[in-house]
């Protein structure tokens, strides 16, 4: 095929594809332009998750009327003049591609006015084709209105995700920049409803309270460190406050949000030996260093950076975060229950506070012949189970021996030793009871004496709002109670005694793990996810009564050998195998 030059339209769309991937990319580029323009107030409005409209307005310096047409051209910028400037970048934007890229894949209207001008001016760009500059009345600053994103690139439009996912991406972006620039007033509106707003008073902890609630904001630990031209500030979570993924490890370098593997690793190394496997901290950290020591021109979206002295930066971040953790974290003490059994005056609660007396109610309804074979509190040897019973439950009647490592139960059966994973076993017990209740009517709910109010980040609040009816059907009576705020009025009766706020937080965290809307999931899958979060955890010490109750309930399950996700609940060590291991029998 002959070699030919691409048309300007095609080349613009190719360039736009590197910079504008989704509506959140549009918000990011326009937001950074507003920050570079010295804005103190930024307003963002979206419709249909940004597909039909993204509008970003600011009160910055504005663009002169005679430069408006040049501003929407490719490689037009006021932030660089020489190639040497690439090694001393102090602004968020510098390539001059943002407006041109956005205009090539949308219908964009740019309106701006500088302080000295008596009136503003606007220009419209449709599919990369600019119109004429027109005089209009407007306030000082700039407003960019982006309509029908990807209208001329249907393939890109087809690959956008659900509205909930796209909104979450926008909210996540804006909330991070609000933390990085606390002296700027941010406002986000979804249509006419304001979903996020900050005061711009410079208080980062107040912004954390808006995002995550006052209780979480109070727990966050402040980091402030300086060393040989490096400065680190912000917040990290205590070891008691974690998430199941790394999404909330946030880093800004010289005011720019970056996703750098080495910086994330430095934070995780600071928490080394302090967190359970699979748990990650929440951070909002802001690193400042000389512009000549960091290269930001390594990625089309400017989301990655390279450091001149990466080892020095890594060590500085790790030591600073570790120092903050050690300064605020008390010396851990060994729980008294590890040294002996606790008083059995009343049942303890497990997991999120599960009332084991309620969880064990069904065991009391078992047939008399089953109840008499259960182990009593004196550890009496059970009668041998009938073959009929073994077939029905899939596991023989077991005699509890004790707990190992605050994670596994040890029990004796007629054919050997059983090691039971307490978390997986409790998942199975809760799952079968929840599905049994659901098979009849709606799952019964236990009304709380005092409703619990919880504030969620905007992206999580949207997810909960969209699924309220489905959650209520499963016994979680949750109502909207203001912007990004919900009131929990009841929990499923099966989880009576649980912490309502922790329960909803855990559910939201788990639902965010994938992009599948709840309605698209089977009811059993949702029940399995709920039970996973509500079950007792590994590392949790159970009383003798709790251990016996869990073992009895597991025996009564229809499928006791696996949890709802297919993981085994128990390992069987037969007497025959033990005898061979101890040399009492020769190998077969």
Structural notes for this entry:
- The chain is of the alpha+beta class and 588 residues long.
- The protein folds into three domains: 8-201, Histidine kinase-like ATPase, C-terminal domain (Heat Shock Protein 90, 2-Layer Sandwich), CATH 3.30.565.10; 220-328, 2-Layer Sandwich (Ribosomal Protein S5, domain 2), CATH 3.30.230.10; 347-588, 2-Layer Sandwich (formyl-coa transferase, domain 3), CATH 3.30.1540.20.
- It is built from 21 helices and 25 strands.
- The longest helix has 19 residues, at 310-328.
Short description, anyone?
By secondary structure, this protein is of the alpha+beta class. The protein folds into three domains: 8-201, Heat Shock Protein 90, CATH 3.30.565; 220-328, 2-Layer Sandwich (Ribosomal Protein S5, domain 2); 347-588, 2-Layer Sandwich (formyl-coa transferase, domain 3).
Unreliable stretches (pLDDT < 50, length at least 5) are 330-354, 356-393
Number of DSSP helices?
21
Q: Mind telling me the CATH superfamily name of the largest domain?
A: MutL, C-terminal domain, dimerisation subdomain
> What share of the residues lie within helices?
25-40%
Biggest beta-sheet profile: 9 strands, mixed
Mean pLDDT over the residues: 79
Radius of gyration over alpha carbons?
Answer: 30 Å
